[in-house]
Specification:
heterodimer, A: alpha/beta, Rossmann fold, 3 domains, six-stranded parallel beta sheet, 18 strands, B: 185 residues, alpha+beta, Alpha-Beta Plaits, 2 domains, five-stranded antiparallel beta sheet, 28% helix
């Protein structure tokens, strides 16, 4: 059979039902195989859109996302999604075409050293050297992408190799002696952790995206409620624990709640699960949680003690470890009454420092209100996909996620332009669910071409642009830390998003009245097909509270 | 301290303060890798990304033709190597890493010295060569080429001896290292 047909067979064997991509010279043979392979291929308008769509698909479904791009510029366009997937541990496999083998290294037409360019931003990459390697390489790629700490894998296929004729049934058994992720946590360590938790008077559970990746939300709730452990999550962990739960403190970090950050600051024991002590979480590292001992549960041993030394390290998959930890903890029969004082303190913080903003007294739409209105209009049941900036932080703060895989955003890399294509991917992966993209007038323009993909394929994402005419987060920093010298952040009223939406074949709306906003959003959601709502919000509103750069968590402002 | 994103200026001293633990000694990392194209780049890239200077690096085949060994030395007084070792473990093609303890390790390096040697200097030099158990592998009227094998210290000592005579050229292979005793490195 043709090598490219074998590629299709391997994709099917891996359970791939949809891929995102854009053809070009170096992957023409592969695209010929797509013609009748029976795999749903979504033609994107830019390879970055395809990469982010694969990420959105993966984050929403938990399955491996797949994208195809050609050599040279196609491959370099997919570099940003690769870096994004690496930072946020997203399981994706990207296939790039490459010039034919006799042209490699000769500056051939549309040649780029894709493997070389992407080496620091992949979990693994494979350059195909011989067509017989293809089936095994593909199965290895999927296995590596989804197992252990998930991440992106790139397969680069020179075009001449993809044109080869290969035997039908090749041995494709995955043998990776250098890759054996630890899944089960060390039992002794887990027992130690349970004992430490039972002795703690001011414990906090600090959960991250690893809990969602491990599909461990149920286990996390069970663990947290095995006693009355207060829970906070990172930006990436939102939805891993229900925002409506009595033990929820809110998100922590730079724009987290004061309660969550103060609790970390005052804790005597912090149990980190699938979280990596990012600088946006810790604030000034030397003053981070100074009274706390740390239990650190992570599937990636390199994360343990990377930024904060762990007293009880546990390497393993969150779901397995939490299940055992609950059993061990229950067996100890700890007295829950020891936490009374801690909860009293937390209650005082909650009462004194709730998330708040000054609502407008006229028809003006405050950005925070927009998120609350979206929550009301969707009953909190939407998959919310965010871009990057102020709108992202407000959505994280005010939407209130009760379930995992309902909040999809670019956390580690902070990629503007992630939102629309990721929403598209999430919608393709979850056709029966409502997918809303929250974006800004800056971010949306970085991958707006995917509106054409949504329109052509009737992918009914509802896009809500929080339009303040600024690169808002940069403007906020210039206001707060650079004496209001607004250097190149004013985007004006360009473009006209309603006309643009219509030109793309989507429906465009413009909203600017607070009084009707909830109904307006309901109307947008009820409109079939892709919709773009240009919502005019307060121009100069700041995202608060905030840990100023370099400050300690207890010194939050706003 | 000036923070990224704010307008406070950084002093140059602050830029120097790096985080992480330093062991204060030389580390010999013995890394078994799959014998495939690009693997060395991945390994070297991990060091480069952190701005670490690799002092010596050797790569060669092992008793198993599917497997190659990279031996590299890094100064633990200058760089915190713990993180980089953990990151190396994450490379799919890396099979095994050992940070060898100096006491339990045999290390060897080969060096070639091309030294100016005329008249009386020549016999002196050859005498030193003998003391260091070196071998003369090439001679001209005005120079000798000497091969020395041994530990880093010995090679450095010979370099000190040879330099006054006029060191025309020196080459060193970088260390290879094997754990003492019956067990595998």
């Amino acid at each position: 059979m043709r090598a490219v047909d074998a590629v299709m067979e391997c994709l099917k064997a891996e359970g791939v039902d949809v891929v995102f991509g854009l053809p070009g010279g170096a992957n023409l043979p592969t695209y010929d195989a797509f013609y009748d392979a029976g795999i749903h291929h979504v033609l994107v308008r830019h390879e970055a859109g395809g990469g982010h769509a694969a990420e959105g698909y993966a984050k929403a479904t938990g399955k491996v996302g797949v994208a195809f791009a050609t050599s040279g510029p196609g491959a370099t366009n997919i570099v940003t999604p690769l870096a994004d997937a690496m930072m946020d541990s997203v399981p994706v496999v990207f296939f790039t075409g490459q010039v034919r083998t006799d042209l490699l290294g000769t500056d051939g037409f549309q040649e780029a050293d894709t493997i070389g360019i992407t080496m620091p931003i992949v979990k693994h990459s494979i350059m195909i050297q011989h067509p017989l390697e293809l089936p095994r390489a593909i199965h290895e790629a999927f296995y590596i992408a989804r197992s252990g700490r998930p991440g992106p894998v790139l397969i680069d296929i020179p075009v001449d190799l993809s044109r080869a004729e290969i035997p039908d049934a090749l041995d494709a058994e995955v043998t990776l002696p250098g890759y054996q992720p630890t899944i089960e946590g060390n039992h002794k360590q887990i027992r130690q952790a349970a004992k430490a938790l039972a002795a703690a008077k001011r414990p906090v559970i600090y959960a991250g995206g690893g809990v969602i990746n491990a599909n461990a939300a149920t286990e996390l709730i069970e663990f947290a409620t095995a006693d009355r452990f207060p829970v906070t999550t990172t930006l990436m962990g939102l939805g891993a624990f229900p925002a409506s739960h009595a033990q929820w403190l809110g998100m922590l970090g730079m724009h987290g709640t004061r309660t969550a950050n103060y609790a970390m600051d005052g804790a005597d024991l912090i149990c980190a699960i699938g979280a990596r002590f990012d600088d946006r979480v810790t604030g000034k590292l030397s003053e981070f949680a100074q009274h706390a001992k740390f239990i650190h549960i992570d599937v990636d041993p390199a994360e343990i003690s990377k930024n904060v030394p762990a007293h009880i390290p546990i390497v393993g998959d969150a779901r397995h470890v939490l299940a055992k930890l609950v059993t061990e903890y229950r067996a100890l029969g700890a007295d829950s009454g020891r936490l009374d004082g801690w909860w009293k303190q937390i209650g005082a913080w909650r009462a004194e420092y709730p998330l708040r903003y000054d609502d407008s007294t006229d028809s003006e739409i405050k950005p925070q209100y927009l998120i609350q209105a979206l929550h009301e209009a969707t009953g909190g049941e939407a998959i919310v996909v965010s871009d990057v900036g102020q709108h992202q932080m407000w959505a994280a703060q005010y939407y209130g996620f009760d379930k995992p895989r309902r909040w999809i955003n670019s956390g580690g890399l902070g990629t503007m332009g992630f939102g629309l294509p990721a929403a598209m991917g999430a919608q393709v992966g979850c056709p029966d669910q409502l997918v809303c993209a929250i974006t800004g007038d800056g971010s949306i323009q970085m991958n707006i071409q995917e509106l054409a993909t949504c329109a052509q394929n009737q992918i009914p994402v509802k896009v809500f642009i929080m339009n303040n005419g600024y690169l808002g987060m940069v403007r906020q920093w210039q206001e707060l830390f650079w004496d209001r010298r607004y250097s190149h952040v004013d985007m004006g009223e360009y473009p006209d998003f309603v006309k643009l939406a219509e030109a793309y074949g989507a429906t465009g709306y413009r909203y600017s009245d607070k009084a009707t906003l909830v109904d307006d959003i309901r109307a947008a959601i009820a409109t079939p097909g892709p919709v773009v709502a240009d919502i005019r919000v307060t121009r100069e509103e700041n995202t608060y509270p905030m840990i100023s750069p370099g400050a300690a968590a207890r010194d939050m402002v706003g | 301290m000036g923070e990224p994103g704010t307008k406070e200026l950084l002093s140059l001293e602050e830029l120097d303060a790096s985080v992480g633990l330093r062991t204060g000694r030389k580390h010999v990392l013995s890394i078994l890798v799959e014998n495939r194209p690009g693997v060395l780049t991945r390994v070297a890239g991990l060091f480069a990304r952190r701005g670490f200077n690799i002092e010596t690096l050797t790569v060669g085949p092992t008793e198993d033709d599917q497997v190659a060994r990279i031996t590299l030395t890094v100064d633990g007084a200058v760089h915190p190597i713990d993180q980089v070792t953990k990151q190396l473990h994450k490379l799919i093609n890396v099979l095994k890493i050992r940070d060898l303890e100096p006491a339990g390790t045999v290390t060897r390096e080969l060096a070639l010295f091309k030294v100016a040697a005329e008249g009386a200097a020549r016999s002196e030099l050859l005498e030193f060569c003998e003391i260091f158990r070196g071998r003369v592998v090439d001679v001209t009227k005005r120079s000798v080429l000497i091969e020395i094998t041994g530990e880093e210290d010995k090679i450095e000592a010979f370099e000190q001896v040879a330099r006054p005579y006029g060191l025309i050229e020196m080459m060193r292979t970088g260390e290879i290292a094997m754990a003492r005793g019956r067990g595998e490195t």
